[in-house]
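Provenance and format

Records in this collection were gathered into a single text stream. Each protein contributes a sequence line and a token line. The two records reproduced below are adjacent in the stream.
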Amino acid sequence: MSVSRDQKPEPHSNVAADTADNDSTSPQCAESPLASTNAQMSSEPVWISPGSAAFRRISVALFLAGYATFSLIYCVQPLLPELANHFGVGPAESSLALSLTTGFLAFAILLAGAVSEAAGRKQLMLVSMCVASILNLIAPFLSDWHAFLVLRALEGLILGGVPAVAMAYLAEEIDPKGLGMAMGIYISGTAIGGLSGRVVIGFLTDMFGWHTALGAMGAFGLLAALGFAVLLPASRNFVRRPGFQVRYHLRAWGGHLKHAGLPYVFLIGAFAMGCFVTVFNYVGFRLSDEPYSLSQSQIGLIFVVYLCGSVMSSIAGALSDRLGRGPVLVVGVLLAGLGVVLTMLDSLGGIIGGIVVLTSGFFVAHSIASGWVGRLAETSKGHASSLYLLAYYLGSSIMGSVGGWFWDHGGWNAVAGFAVALLFCALLCGIHLWRLAAKASGDRGQGAGGNAVKGELVDAT
């Protein structure tokens, strides 16, 4: 195994700074219910500290990556009526322009972590952003509906190289004391990207038409990729693994799935995203009907609440570094549930207020869960991140479609009930993780398995 000249081996204990006097290779490591999926520690990691110039560069670069990825994914959502009219397809078929992208994205993310082990973190993210942006520039010139869908599917496949790898990069390079903040800033970039992809393109469409608007989003993506390439430092704690070693990747995925805590984090991502997408998929149908009769541009402005998500994800990350991940995660899920309940009110203000609360709670939960993956999976972080995002986007695709059945058979109250049920499942997973972390912290206080209980478990209580 070779290490590039400016790299150091990937750390096998990203909490070495928190427990420098503990031996991570101790046999007691297996005693903790949330012990990380670690191997023998090869060297001390070279962390990037919060507040440093490198930390700020990474934060801005990963913000741009999140922006480009999610603006390109979701820019077609407000264009679905335009696409239906232009290509002569129905509303359900027009939704494939988005669902195919997110569906292929889910499976691409699973492989992206493995590919990045050989290709490198920064290189894979940069290529993904550039190629996807170029595809978005090509899309407006296609006159065949099926060709357009193939291009959108390819875009999702290629964009899978960003989310999982970005999470792995942050977990490898950022000091654990600032990981929550850094992850929150990245998630805020995804929120701004989702906002831009849904709102900005609507105004551009009104002014210039959907063809120009869609191409403009591709151009914005290329500009973000340029900034990303200039700002992001090369990895320092990453070990390149040449070739595609099937056994290694299967062993890495299997190890994460056998972990005491990681599968619950994956489920939280699936349930939370399933709820979020279900609400946003069908609230437009409700608000376009009587007695609200909102126009498409007015409905599109509701997505401005993504700004709340951007702010809340950064706040949640900072709070988790101080208070622990468990309590902040649970509060986020409860907040999202309150938001869903508020959308059942008849007043327009109550519905919009509920969407604001839901969005805030969702981004709190997503930000915390994303950061927790990086803390629990000390090795093969790209694989752990890819599993989390696979669950996250499968939850979006599957639950979002299932929500349509509730809309058809019971209206909005049925949709809201389904969304609350999903959040209840996420809440159960969060409480279980919190209890495991509390148990691990208690064991440390009693002197049992002290070497196994790393800083992330203490933080999580």
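Adjacent record:
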Amino acid sequence: MGYFKESISGAGNVNALHLAVSDDGREWTPLNDNNAILPPTAGTKGIRDPFLFRLNDGSWVALATDIAAGGSFTKPNPNIHVWTSPDLVNWSADRLLKVNGTNPNAYSWAPAVHWDPVRQAYGITFTTVPQGASYSVIDVAYTTDFVTATDPAVYYDAGHGVIDSHVVTGVNGSNYLYYKDNATGRLAGARSTSVEPGSFTKYTDGVAENRCTEAPTLVKSLTAPSTWMLWGDTYCPNAKFDLWQGDLVSGTWTKAGRQTYTAPLNAKHNTVQPITAADRDRLLARYGGTSWNLLKSYNFPGRYVRHASFAGKISELPFDPYQDAQWRLRPGLSDSTGVSFESVNFPGYYMKQENFEIKVVRDDGTAAFATDATFHRVAGLDGTWSSFRSARFPTRYLRHSSFALRIDEISTGTGRADATFDIVQ
């Protein structure tokens, strides 16, 4: 997965390309501690809306919108960012590619790539407003080398504003274009038997979590060839993804529960492409994963364990400061077979029980503190994930109650669900 980052307050905004890997396309490990892999150096020195694509020779290209952090979305800009790589770890220098030179008064948003077998060239679709038009369309420019490109042509015009394209080719003899339909607020789908500009016809109204849903990303399942996933970004609240699973051909989609996927923290406008096990291993060897984890609630899977005013609770992400939800899992302070949870933004502070309530407190070095801050990870009481048994009170487990964290004896189905968590990255 490629993405850039934003947070609610803007404190976590990073307009640069980040990468994450996954074995199932649902649970993601951010690389480089969720720091940037490719900081932009050309143009505005900022990016949005990255797109990754494996080229016909097996090498890679990364494209992105040229907008700096805090920059104007609508400022005219004919260029997009381009990086190329033979292996996802050795990258070219950042450069600009002009794709929209004939529209001097328009922006060039959200580039995406597909192969055009007739032209023997790569089509770069992007959002813009053509000269003389009053609404946005999907345009296309063609390139063979990602150094120069043709003048743009209108690729898809819905008669009203559309943004954010993803073209998938060669599925049961048809090609598919998904986009954000500004009139309906949904991620809609069009299809064609060719990839010619103007040939696509809408075939499904698609999906949306709300009218802020945008940035459709189509991903074919690696294990079930007829199953597709459709990711959608949202900006209300910002930095939150929704996921649907279904049949691309019929345009039938079912919302996936948040228990079944976890996107990287603060990720925006993702791009997903299949990679090999060798690619994954090479990326992890070069960049590493994360040095911290998040704890995801089982029965409120949009909520994560955090501290607020040094009290433990679960809150719905996104929130700021987002670092309140990041924990370093240390060997148990009183028993190395257990685990202790150290705060990332308050190093040396740990989750501990005080009168059965969870507080985040500086380690005072005492044996009593160590025992109160140690838990034993066991199989999830609700039959999945993990639960954490108190070292101080071995019949009590970490759980949330009215979203506050505490340790309790567990005897009900609700309690078992409250006491079950997933350790994610």
